[in-house]
């Protein structure tokens, strides 16, 4: 039996305050964080849905949602003759729900009246902060074929990674029989599941929940009627195990949870690999984002190696190595950028503004001349002066001030920060 795509809606969870991604989430919600030089995190689940012919999507958020609203409004405009939409549902206080979202399940519960205004048989629930490319067609069709109540996308993991996840144990029919949250290593021998020979050869014997679920409409309505449960991973799924038919849908491709600065940084730098695990150059799995009318990037005397350069950049740098350079970036003469993600800018300075900044001694938007920046994340619209030296690494302790933060050795220049000439972080 083939799933009717019109009977599937997608619910994308925007997450909480995103404190582990601070300072990137200081003024924006987690799904709005720029990734890959020109995209936003929310573009990943939305693109996966669109590539799977699922065109009705809700994005649930409650923190710093202004830039997310603007991005979605300016990006996902479908034909007025279609039923496609991407709607943002921000937390709202009502007589029935006087509080903000208290967890993933509570967010879905509070928004249920909006979902029920639409015809659907299956709800696909996704996270807004994961990097992966998945065709949901197979997952939906397997859910229907097997007559499951709930289907959970699972990822084979090894013994080293298993304690970081909720681990599921399946029977010979790939149905989930038990669940344990972040098991201790000594418990792992009892939690092996049947995986493919390829996964076994890689030492991946355990199935981790990816936080991707399919619920039948009626079951979701029944579960949401219990206002005591607040979270899918911690309450609803464990409570359903043994009481409902829960199918494990194994996914063996690239997947990473963008939960903290370290994983976010590695995911972006990983895009510069010769054969990146996350493939941006795929005809069948396009990543959709806001179409911008930007000029081509311009280079002068710049040596570039293993890097991604977005549109509209003006680069006079000496070297750019293993870095992702975002839209409208400007990097001055003689500068060296290595192992960095430079997010770029939301605007260009005009000549008059630049001349005024030079006259008054204010740093220009972008990165100045003769800078050295390594192992750093430069947020949008920063003004980094001349002769600035930034060298991140494991030798640095965690730290934060009004200009920058250090997390796991990665220096994060805060959005809109002004870094004076000759400033040193090492």
TrEMBL record:
Its EC number is 2.7.7.27. InterPro entries: ADP-Glc_PPase, ADP_Glu_pyroP_CS, NTP_transferase_dom, Nucleotide-diphossugar_trans, Trimer_LpxA-like_sf. Keywords: ATP-binding, Carbohydrate metabolism, Glycogen metabolism, Nucleotide-binding, Nucleotidyltransferase, Transferase. The keyword Acetylation does not apply. It holds the Pfam family LbH_GLGC. The keyword Nucleotidyltransferase applies. GO terms for biological process: glycogen biosynthetic process. One of its GO terms (molecular function) is ATP binding. Residues 10-271 form the Nucleotidyl transferase domain. It comes from the Bacteria. Signal peptide: none annotated. NCBIfam families: glgC, PRK02862.1. This is Glucose-1-phosphate adenylyltransferase.
